[in-house]
Amino acid sequence: MVGGGQLARMTQSAAVALGVRLAVLAERADDSAAHVVPSTVIGSHLDADAVRRFARSVDVLTFDHEHVPTDLLHELTDEGIAVRPGPEALVNAQDKGVMRARLAALGVPVPRWALVGDTPALETFAAVAGWPLVLKTTRGGYDGKGVQLVASIEEAESWLAAAASRDDVVLAEEAVPFRRELAALVARSPSGQAAAWPVVWTLQVDGVCREVIAPAPDLSEELAAEATRIALQIAGELGVVGVLAVEMFEVEDFRGRRGVLVNELAMRPHNSGHWSIDGAVTSQFEQHLRAVLDLPLGDPRARSRWCVMVNVLGGDHPDLYRSYLHVMARDPGLKVHLYGKDVRPGRKIGHVTVYTDRVDGLEDALARARHAADFIRGVIDE
Amino acid sequence: MVGGGQLARMTQSAAVALGVRLAVLAERADDSAAHVVPSTVIGSHLDADAVRRFARSVDVLTFDHEHVPTDLLHELTDEGIAVRPGPEALVNAQDKGVMRARLAALGVPVPRWALVGDTPALETFAAVAGWPLVLKTTRGGYDGKGVQLVASIEEAESWLAAAASRDDVVLAEEAVPFRRELAALVARSPSGQAAAWPVVWTLQVDGVCREVIAPAPDLSEELAAEATRIALQIAGELGVVGVLAVEMFEVEDFRGRRGVLVNELAMRPHNSGHWSIDGAVTSQFEQHLRAVLDLPLGDPRARSRWCVMVNVLGGDHPDLYRSYLHVMARDPGLKVHLYGKDVRPGRKIGHVTVYTDRVDGLEDALARARHAADFIRGVIDE
């Protein structure tokens, strides 16, 4: 697995159970996964030689992020290395412009969009889509970085200039007045087997995932099926191998339409699937391993009526042991996951999960999970 | 954790989630846990210097087996090292003679027993307890090793001679005509908090644990409560820290008594608790870490109506990948755990778990788990 973040770390737990030997290419010796994976190689995913050497040392190459250059992955594939997902699929998670064009060609519902290189092009698009607009860098964004809501051409100028200086274009999209965000998570193996987890509700704050509820409450069966169908269609048409997360906007009356629009793709375990560790028969991490190793996929069904995941962000509390004493004593059923990262304000340092079989237990589960996350962060002190 | 077997390996998964840095003292670089724990130190648990150095490098010392000499652990405790469980508790899991005397003094029901050093002493005990008798080495036995059923004084001679040559005595016990074997698993923290998992049924074949059903079927509430009470009593009276497994015989009419008799103790995660990884809110591995770190204990309740664990023993099938293809395709809900050990006939190389919420689903769950274990072992081929 290229990348030593928390996704690789959590993949290690699945690898330990399956008896799979996980190796990681991590940038730094104190990366989250490096603490728990003996076969950690230190090297940058941007260093072609390092990636090449690492790739040749493993049976299957996969990723905890999208940042390995596409050209390099093509070169590895040409050499006969099993790269999963392959570069032709992965480029759709690497380059938002490629993704938008591909999804549009597939007839998948997406916001109106345009790749714009200069002010006149943006003005032309704005005349159709209206202000405000969402501007995105085509590559390299994550967790709200590389995304900007702009209300006028003046606000967009600096983005256009920055892109031009990189010889790049900007992806402009209409701002969708969504009811909420959903995520449909599926996995697909090289043999073409696919499995879909329940569609979840995701709450982002400042572009960072904060909470996930599985399954999404108040979601009609029709819309859940539609979201799942779209995710499976994308996985199949793009030839994805491994986990595919499809982030969507749910719209209630948008250009006369009720349904979902696809926002982003990720081809790896994803924050919207962390609930599955404790909440599903097969976690996204186990499933990703099974998929990239071309093993039969596991049952993705939920084990409880509701499962809630809340991210733990770093605060001013560096002493996590004392936080543990409190949150564990208060809630023996809470599942805490910490990533072994240094605490820095706003950084994702872990998550907590609460599940319940009570049909009316969602509010209570949310309250428990939020309390624990807030307490560990240091936002509350009791 | 001293010892690099599968218990340390499975503890690593819990440590990864909790953000706890696990270090392991393993005898060999290819031990089960050494594959998955970066902070593995190679050294023998019988090498006092190696254990001492390792103990001084960690915050809390705990164990994946009982084989560290008691004297050495006392020395470490005297030095101020946190040894959990402490030597005064642990000696009861190390020395069956000490354990029998202690449990008898506590009034815990045990089979009739005697420590015997020679033939006359054994004859005296046999005159009371009758033949056959069970002979056990006081130290070092596991998985049926160090245990022998003998029908006559002649059959016992070689055991007595072997013990005498080690300057040791033999533990002789009456052979209990049990209905079945049960295990009560509890955890206790230094603060005295305790938690008990449901009492399970365990099936041993040739002294090796083969199957566990949680909770034990057809067990009256009274007997379950009695077994749990005994385990909690032992944990408290002995000052156990961490997981305590109490293996028991269930008797239906034995010397006019219906109930349980304590057979063996283990003070660490135990085969009878592997089901808890997939089947309980808090696994025994997470609980052991929480207990030895003096964190509040987690909820030990079962998540499903039935949970079945079947050990996978090594067979003539070294190619586990092909086995995986079959068992995973046949049963997407099966949870497979392999320990990364070389396959040798009869060796515990993994386990499989199946859970179900169907009240009448036990037979089906057992059949699924047995099929998978047999297939991976190579006993069946479809």
What descriptive keywords fit this protein?
25% strand, alpha+beta, D-amino Acid Aminotransferase, Chain A, domain 1, homodimer, 9-stranded antiparallel sheet, Dna Ligase, domain 1, Rossmann fold, 382 residues
Write the layout of secondary structure elements.
The structure is a homodimer of 382-residue chains.
Chain A: H1 6-18, E1 23-26, E2 39-42, H2 48-56, H3 70-78, H4 87-94, H5 96-106, E3 113-116, H6 119-129, E4 133-137, E5 147-150, H7 153-165, E6 170-174, E7 180-188, E8 194-196, E9 200-205, E10 208-214, H8 221-238, E11 242-254, E12 257-266, H9 276-279, H10 284-292, E13 306-313, H11 320-330, E14 335-338, E15 348-356, H12 362-377
Parallel strand pairs in A: 1-2
Antiparallel strand pairs in A: 3-6, 4-5, 4-6, 7-8, 7-9, 7-11, 9-10, 10-13, 11-12, 13-15, 14-15
Description:
2 copies of one chain form a homodimer. Chain A is globular and about 60 Å long. Chain A folds into 3 domains: 6-83, 3-Layer(aba) Sandwich (Rossmann fold), CATH 3.40.50; 112-174, Dna Ligase, domain 1 (2-Layer Sandwich), CATH 3.30.1490; 180-377, D-amino Acid Aminotransferase, Chain A, domain 1 (2-Layer Sandwich), CATH 3.30.470. The longest helix of chain A is centred in the middle third of the chain and has 18 residues, at 221-238. The relative contact order of chain A is 0.11. By secondary structure, chain A is of the alpha+beta class. The two termini of chain A are 39 Å apart. Chain A is built from 12 helices and 15 strands. In chain A, strands 7, 8, 9, 10, 11, 12, 13, 14 and 15 form a 9-stranded antiparallel sheet that branches. A 4-stranded antiparallel sheet of chain A has the order 3-6-4-5, sandwiched between helices. The model of chain A has no long low-confidence stretch (mean pLDDT 95). Chains A and B meet through helix 1, helix 11 and strand 14 of A and helix 1, helix 11 and strand 14 of B.
